[in-house]
Amino acid sequence: MAKKKTSSSRPSAPQLRELVAAARAAATQAYSPYSKVCVGAALLAEDGSLYIGCNVENASYGLTICAERAAVASAVAAGVRRFRAIAIATNQPRVVMPCGACRQVLMEFAPDLELFVAGPGRQFVTTTLADLLPAAFLPKHLR
C-alpha cells in the first residue's frame, strides 16, 4: 500500500509524525499469536511514497516475516527501491530495534537510511542504519 507524500532529504516534523503514526497503526495489524510482540513499520521512499508492513508470525518460527522486511517487499513490489527513512513501532514498553536480518535487508536498498524507532507514548529514538550495522555486507562486495 503506497501513499504519496512530498519529498525532501529528512522528513519534516509533520511527515515524521505521520510516519510514526503509520508504523503504530501497522503494528495493530500484526499477527503475533506466539510472541505477542506486535511490530509495525512505515518506510518513506525517496519519491515521498509510504509503504507499511507488520510482522506475521508462524508456528515454524523461522518462517516469521518481520514488519520492516514486509514494508520493503511492499515497496519493491511497487517498483520502488530508494528510501529516506523508516519508522518502527511495537506494543512493547520499550524501544525495540530491528533484528539483524532486517538491518541487512534495509542496507541492501538504503545504507544511509534514518530510523525513527518508537517507544511508549510519544518517545522515539533516532538512529541510522550505518550505526546499527557497521561494516555491513553490501552488493559492492560481490563484484
Briefly characterize the structure.
The chain is of the alpha+beta class and 143 residues long. The chain contains four helices and six strands.
What's the helix-strand series?
EHEEHEHEEH
Q: What is the CATH homology-level superfamily? A: Cytidine Deaminase, domain 2
Largest sheet: 6 strands, mixed
Q: CATH topology, anyone? A: Cytidine Deaminase, domain 2
Beta strand %: 15-25%
Query: What is the C-level CATH assignment?
Result: Alpha Beta
Low-confidence stretches: 1-8
Short key terms for the protein model shown above:
single chain; about 140 residues; alpha+beta; Cytidine Deaminase, domain 2; six-stranded mixed sheet; 4 helices; 6 strands; about 20% strand; globular; disordered N terminus
